[in-house]
């Protein structure tokens, strides 16, 4: 019965079958490097563990590095590329990245070690994707599996990097930018939960402390003792702009649902975070995650998988860089 049905398919249907089969063949696979680089995950995890042991901030930095890569032309490792004179402009000097994004050297070291065992085999993009997962799980997130087979891009886009979601933007704009990448409002809430670890510079939220909305007064939504503590750490003067403040001070280095508990207690640091607890589209999700840590940790892994699949290059597209900083 099935054989006869196949024979009767029009030629265009046969084309679609073979075309889609080719696409499936080129897609990501959980054992993509199973035979070509069997120790890859161990090499990456050790590199990430060593980096975090040396600097606990690096866990948040690697997650953010992955985010900033995937939101510009897809997950292709373009953020790792250096400028090359006047011939190639990378993304490292874009406003959201310069003096802010960290972790490049960690990926470079891991890549160098991978090259020793598996030369010209593993993409920088896959290494960054694994490193972000390992950084989160070492800090306390729930483990999630990562399908591999991404290839590295040969271009960068500084203009697009300058349009990354910003803590100064409205929720409407942020949701729109997520939607343009195939992510939804739930992903906005879930991925913002990465702010359960890491730090922010005072200039990213100082407007809430002294002159909110041009009122000459602090943001009335900020919890009083939290506000006073921030005003002492980030006084209203420019020399405090780069001072670092924990995004989730009660559990700074632990990946948990503390970020959401802070939001419901009016102790969210960034305005873009705080609004998640007050907007009708997101408030109920924030409330649920503040109560049910397992729910957040489960959903975080799922949203990270979605993000890691944005605009990936597979098959013969792109390349496998030997050095993450430069195209071959």
TL;DR of this structure?
This protein is mostly helical and 328 residues long.
Describe the structure.
The model is unreliable at 1-26 (pLDDT under 50). The termini are far apart. It is built from 15 helices and 2 strands. It has helices at 2-7, 11-26, 40-54, 58-70, 104-117, 124-139, 158-161, 171-179, 185-192, 207-210, 224-233, 258-264, 271-274, 283-291, 293-308, and strands at residues 199-201, 244-246. It is 46% helix and 2% strand. It has a two-stranded antiparallel ribbon. It is globular and about 60 Å long.
Per-chain topology:
Layout: H1 2-7, H2 11-26, H3 40-54, H4 58-70, H5 104-117, H6 124-139, H7 158-161, H8 171-179, H9 185-192, E1 199-201, H10 207-210, H11 224-233, E2 244-246, H12 258-264, H13 271-274, H14 283-291, H15 293-308
Antiparallel strand pairs: 1-2
Helix pairs in contact: 3-5, 3-6, 4-6, 5-6, 12-14, 14-15
Which features would summarize this protein structure in a list?
15 helices, two-stranded antiparallel sheet, mainly alpha, 328 residues
Percent range for helical residues? 40-55%
Q: What is the arithmetic mean of pLDDT?
A: 92
Based on CA atoms alone, the radius of gyration comes out at: 22 Å
**Strands of the largest sheet, in order across it?**
1-2
Shape: globular
Strands, count: 2
Distance between the termini: 52 Å
Taking the sheet with the most strands, its summary is: 2 strands, antiparallel
Low-confidence stretches: 1-26
Order of helices and strands: HHHHHHHHHEHHEHHHH
Strand content: under 5%
Question: Structural class, from helix and strand content?
Answer: mainly alpha
How many DSSP helices? 15
């Amino acid at each position: 019965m099935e054989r006869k049905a196949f024979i009767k398919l029009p030629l265009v249907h046969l084309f679609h079958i073979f075309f889609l089969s080719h696409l499936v063949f080129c897609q990501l696979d959980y054992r993509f490097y199973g035979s070509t680089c069997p120790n890859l995950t161990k090499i990456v995890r050790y590199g990430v563990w060593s980096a975090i042991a040396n600097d606990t901030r690096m866990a948040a930095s690697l997650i953010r590095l992955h985010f900033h890569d995937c939101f510009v032309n897809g997950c292709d490792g373009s953020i790792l590329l250096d400028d090359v004179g006047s011939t190639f402009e990378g993304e490292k000097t874009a406003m959201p990245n310069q003096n802010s994004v960290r972790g490049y050297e960690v990926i470079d070291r891991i890549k160098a070690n991978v090259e020793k065992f598996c030369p010209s085999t593993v993409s920088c993009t896959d290494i960054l994707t694994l490193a972000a997962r390992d950084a989160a799980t070492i800090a306390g997130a729930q483990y999630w599996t990562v399908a591999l087979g991404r290839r590295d891009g040969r271009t960068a886009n500084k203009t697009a990097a300058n349009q990354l979601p910003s803590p100064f933007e409205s929720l409407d704009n942020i949701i729109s930018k997520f939607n343009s990448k195939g992510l939804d409002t739930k992903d906005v809430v879930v991925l913002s939960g990465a702010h359960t670890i890491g730090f922010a510079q005072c200039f990213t939220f100082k407007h809430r402390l002294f002159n909110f909305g041009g009122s000459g007064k602090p943001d009335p939504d900020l919890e009083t003792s939290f506000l006073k503590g921030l005003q002492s750490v980030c006084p209203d003067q420019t020399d405090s702009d780069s001072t670092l403040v924990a995004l989730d001070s009660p559990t700074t280095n632990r990946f948990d649902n503390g970020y959401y508990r802070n939001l419901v207690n009016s102790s969210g640091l960034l305005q873009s975070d705080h609004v998640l607890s007050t907007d009708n589209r997101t408030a109920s999700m924030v409330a649920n995650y503040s109560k049910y840590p397992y729910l957040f940790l489960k959903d975080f892994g799922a949203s990270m998988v979605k993000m890691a699949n944005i605009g990936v290059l597979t098959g013969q597209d792109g390349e496998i860089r030997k050095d993450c900083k430069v195209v071959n």
